[in-house]
Design a protein that fits this description.
It comes from Calditerrivibrio nitroreducens (strain DSM 19672 / NBRC 101217 / Yu37-1). GO terms for molecular function: mRNA binding; structural constituent of ribosome. One of its GO terms (biological process) is nucleobase-containing compound metabolic process. Pfam families: HHH_3, HHH_9, S1, Tex_central_region, Tex_N, Tex_YqgF. With 710 residues, this protein is of the alpha/beta class. Among the domains are: 84 residues, Arc Repressor Mutant, subunit A (Orthogonal Bundle), CATH 1.10.10.650; 57 residues, no CATH class; 125 residues, YqgF/RNase H-like domain (Nucleotidyltransferase, domain 5); 140 residues, DNA polymerase, domain 1; 74 residues, OB fold (Dihydrolipoamide Acetyltransferase, E2P). A 5-stranded mixed sheet has the order 6-5-4-7-8, sandwiched between helices. A 5-stranded mixed β-barrel has the order 11-12-13-15-14. A 3-stranded antiparallel sheet has the order 2-1-3. Helix 5 runs parallel beside helix 7 and helix 15 runs parallel beside helix 22. The longest helix has 47 residues. 36% of the residues are buried.
Amino acid sequence: MYHQIADEFQIKPDYIKSLIELNESGATVPFIARYRKEQTGGMTETTIRQVLDRWNYLQSLNKRKIEVIEAIKEKGKLTDEIEKLIATATTLKEVEDIYAPYKSKKKTKADIAIEKGLLPLAEFIQSTEDEGKILDFSEKFLNEESTSKDQVISEALEILINKIGHDLDVKKMVRELVWQHSFIVVEKRKDVEGRTNYEDYYNFKQEVSKLPPHRTLAIFRGEKEKILKVKYDHDDDILLSAITSIAKNKGYSENSYCHKLIRDAYKRMIIPAIELEIRDELWENAENKAIEIFAKNLKSLLMTPPVKNISILGIDPAFRTGCKFAAVDPTGKVLEYGVIYPTEPQNDYENSKKRILDLIKKHNINAIAIGNGTASRETEEFISKVIEEENLTLSYTIVSEAGASVYSASEIGVKEFPELDVTIRGAISIARRVIDPLAELIKIDPKSIGVGMYQHDVNQKKLQERLNDVVVDVVNSVGVDLNTASASLLKYVSGLNSSLAEGIVAYREKNGTFKSREELKNVSGIGEMIYNQAAGFLKIYSGTEPLDRMFIHPEQYENVYKLLNHLGLQIENARMIRLTLKSKNITDISKQFGIGELTLNDIITNLEKPDLDIRDSVDPVIFKKGLLKIEDLKEGMIIDGKVTNIVDFGVFVDIGLKESGFIHISELSDRYIKHPSHILEVGNKIKAKIKSIDMERKRISLSKKGINEN
């Protein structure tokens, strides 16, 4: 299988073999991707996961082949031809197609006909043009149970119907033609009354091959909710003609009996089976697409850069119960919390203003983060007015509250702030999402973060696994401060789990900050294997070993110091390493110090830029001072915004209002694009033109056509 996968991915077989061996030895994907590049040829996390998925699929395929061969053998129907077909099958679908005729535990009409001894008659019908001869031949099979020629012929035809219905060539051809020519037809169920969310599909028809994933999910959801009725429209003439052609090539005569059995096989077996397959394939494709979009959006959101060295006031807006606030310092530590009432029904502007000004002065607040939920608009008006009246230098931003209530009521939230009300925890979360989005958002179930669509329709296990992979990859790509990270963040580090993460925090609370990565081995449960997997992703910024703050694995420390000594450098001026190596051959240096060339390049990069944060290249949070109202907008106006969600049919954009703007895929570019994610990511800052404003429905349509981002 190594060579097969190597051919498919255009990767050397030795790299595939090494990857599988590393994985089976317990090495994690982040560890392999960053610290075992020589063994894999520098595969990325994405490629590693794809190769491992393919390896697991091929193993499942081989296991299923053995099971099917044994099952057919037990029925006494295994032939060399069938065994060869199974052995050469390249997909699970092919294996199941071969197994289909032998799968039923109940006797079929074909089985009963064979038991009655009608197989010779079936073969005669298949090969004989003269229907008179067929009638004469059928007389030999009459008995007390089967008393007429029509009856025995009808029973014999069941054998041929079953044969055609399970024919691999027939199924393959029909499957291809259905994809090319058939339509999915959707209509409202007759018993549905009133308005629904599925009115666009009440009289809907589209080619199966052109049905977009988001429409597939919407249609099947509407069907599940008993609002929509789904069926398929096939070109029966084309399909029957194709089946007849295959049958003729396989020795079927053109008598009326053969024409009848082909039509019966088509209606009773072939089309129902193919429709189920098409449905499953449409769903699987749409589901995979939805999960990948969700995963890509989640990654972009988690990669939002932190806002460093500022204190923030987080506000969770509300009307009757007041706006909860929490002031936090640059590390996320809570300084003060409480409630103000600037909104209806209290409208206590003066006291609320005084409290805000006191907080700003007392805690040196640099920015304010306002949640985008209920009363967000009114709270923003209040903050904007205070800034303007007092001529304050600080700014504010609107933060998505998606998942904040989930965190507030969660076990993690309660454990962090057991004495606080859930709404105060929400305000803390809003502030911390600005300071370090990754550290805060990983405390929330990714499905609740609000960057996907149809997440409740797709396979939850598959979705959870994919999103977990994203979180793991981002956390390990960014790295984790061993002395400040929460257990919620630590559990995603390569080699660690919830129990070990809690153990690290407990050790830290008892013994103080870690002075070196080596000290990790003192934590209960962390042996050499786990240490090896985790150490290179855990950073210490004020410890005894300078290399502990970098993405350099402890296993290379000795080599690194030998290299620096050879180059006449100290750790204090190691940033000069690339300049020092300019006149030297990297390959020779690699061999001389026993460091793989790919690993050596990573070491050089980290020594040169020890504090590099990969998130710094991503568009930061947008802060503003003034208020924008929907009434201020006019068609044709060019505005700035930030992409907050990407779906199959377009993108949602934060333009500084409670209501997001929306750009349909057809308005994203002057050229054709297949999917919005091909040109944009969640978090991108963009310029867009206001195309239309629906004041009644609070909908703002945007366009990027003709817009120059520069």
